[in-house]
Amino acid sequence: MQQWIGFLIFSLVTVLFLWMVTFPKDFYKKYNKQIFLLGFVIRILCFFLPPLWEDDWSRYLWEGNLIRIGKSPYQIAPLNYFKELNLSETEIQILSQINHPDWTTIYSPFVLLYFALFSFGFSGLLLKLSYLVFETASFLFFSKGKFNKPGLLYWIFPVLVKEVYINFHFEILILSLLWIYFSFQREKKIIAANFILGLVIHIKIFSILFLFSTIHKIKFKKWKRSWVNWLPYLFSGFVGFLIFYLIYFIIFPNTTDFGISNLFKFGGNFKFNQYYEPFWRIFGITDLKTFPFLLQLITVSVFFWISIDKEKRLRKFLSTARKLDLYFLFGYMFLTLLPVYNPWYFLILIPVLVISKSQNLSPWILITLPQFSYFTKARLSIGFTYFYEIPDSFLLLEATISLICLLWHFKQIFILLYRISNISNIAPKGNIGYGNRN
Question: Can you tell me where the transmembrane regions are (predicted)?
Answer without folding.
Answer: 6-23, 35-53, 111-143, 164-184, 190-212, 233-252, 290-308, 329-354, 393-410
